Amino acid sequence: MKTTHQRLGILITSAILFFSIQLLAESKNSAAETPHRIDAAQFDSANRLVRPANIDEWIFLGATVGHGYPEEGGKKFSAENPGAIQVIQMEPAAYGYLKEHKKYADGTMISLSFYNTQEQPSPAVEGVVQKDLMNFEIHIIDKKMYKDTRAFFLYETGSDVANMIPEGNVCVTCHNKEAHFDGTFTQFYPVIRDEILGRKE
């Protein structure tokens, strides 16, 4: 027959176990509510985004030809005037998080490279091929750091650092209005659209 001390010990042990389980559950819920952070972005002393050195290792998401930012009164897309080839890539750690959790981590970086089209490729082939890099920008998704929940950095030719385009810019407005998934144009990125999100848009 259990003594009073034994019963008291069992009650205390049960209480400790119960509260430990409760704390563990609360901790898991808190972790689930707090977005993960990717700290791949590097800034200089002037808070300019430093161009990552390993862009060649980033994950390819998609590409477009002649689809982008037409100037008013500019030439329309045609076989004779295909415009730029745009290549979209994502920083590998951010891509891994998206693939596992189906959402973006704060600090996610997506790059957009604009390439001229080569007019006379050799050997001569049908279609167009990439020539030299014309423009380059990085889109950072960070709901805690930026008022707009995202920021855009456009690099000038030959520069390895870029200032943030001021808040409330046309890029933010367009992304929030037209993009299909959390401010990103996944409708143009089959790697995310089909393989990760499973959407046929």
Question: Overview of this structure, please?
Answer:
The protein has 201 residues and is α+β, with helices and mostly antiparallel strands. The protein is built from four helices and seven strands; from the N terminus they run H-E-E-E-H-E-E-E-E-H-H. The longest helix is centred in the N-terminal third of the chain and has 30 residues, at 4-33. The protein is globular, with a radius of gyration of 25 Å. The model is unreliable at 15-21 and 29-33 (pLDDT under 50).
CATH homologous superfamily designation of the largest domain: Cytochrome P460
CATH architectural arrangement of the largest domain: 3-Layer(bba) Sandwich
Our measurement of the CA-to-CA distance between the termini, rounded to an integer number of angstroms, reads 70 Å
Strand content: 15-25%
Q: What oligomeric state is this?
A: single chain
Report strand order across the widest sheet: 2-3-4-5-6
Low-confidence residue ranges? 15-21, 29-33
CATH topology of the largest domain: Chalcone isomerase
Radius of gyration, in angstroms, nearest whole number: 25 Å
> How confident overall, as mean pLDDT?
82
General shape: globular
For this structure, what is the CATH class of the largest domain?
A: Alpha Beta
Number of helices: 4
Q: Would you report the number of β strands? A: 7
